[in-house]
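Lab channel / #folding
Pinned by the channel admin:
"Please post every new chain as: sequence first, then the structure tokens as a reply. Keep commentary short and put observations after the output so the thread stays searchable."

First post following the new format, from NK:
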Amino acid sequence: MGNQINHVTLVGLVTNGEIACQQSQMLDYDLMVLDLTLPKLDGFGVCRKLRAQGYQMPILMLTGRDTTNDKVKGLDAGADDYLVKPVDLPELFARIRALLRRGQSIAPPVLKWGDLRLDPSTYEVSYAHQPIHFTRKEYSLLEFLLRNGRRVLTRSVIIEHVWSFENPPEEETVNAYIKSLRRKLRLAGAPRDLIETVHSVGYRLKQLSPESQE
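Reply from TO:
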């Protein structure tokens, strides 16, 4: 497959929908081939969840479910293409190449929270137009917070999504990174409590005022 689709260099395989969403948050995939019949969260749910979180990578649904209702449901959930098994490999490869070409022209949306902006395509962060420089891990942590907004993230969830499975840190390390994020954001003019601590639970972004949401 790699020889026929020249620019695919990294392939990930997961067997349930929840892990598919988690992997997509940790790794910058160019394309997702998605089955519908997945445990924990089916393909429709995975697609809707990723699109709701702002992920724009092309999604090809490859499944044995061939009803018109399923096709409409899949495309409405955010899939870019829907292919029914069994499928000839040359056709599958051609559709993947077409989606990859289309995806190259799609820039990921800028993540915003009030005056805070994070551009996933350039890895640039600013507050009120003032650039802020973060380490790679700080950037990943801030991006994860922005993608979840007011959802409370426990330290264990942050570790699971921001750090590798092979070398997870202690929970105190998360506290240290949050402290560093707050310091750099504050130096750029952000409020001290832009990243809120939910006592004994975790962290989330501060509720935006009505004015900052306009």
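NK: The chain has two domains: 17-103, 111-205.
TO: also worth noting, The chain has a mean pLDDT of 85.
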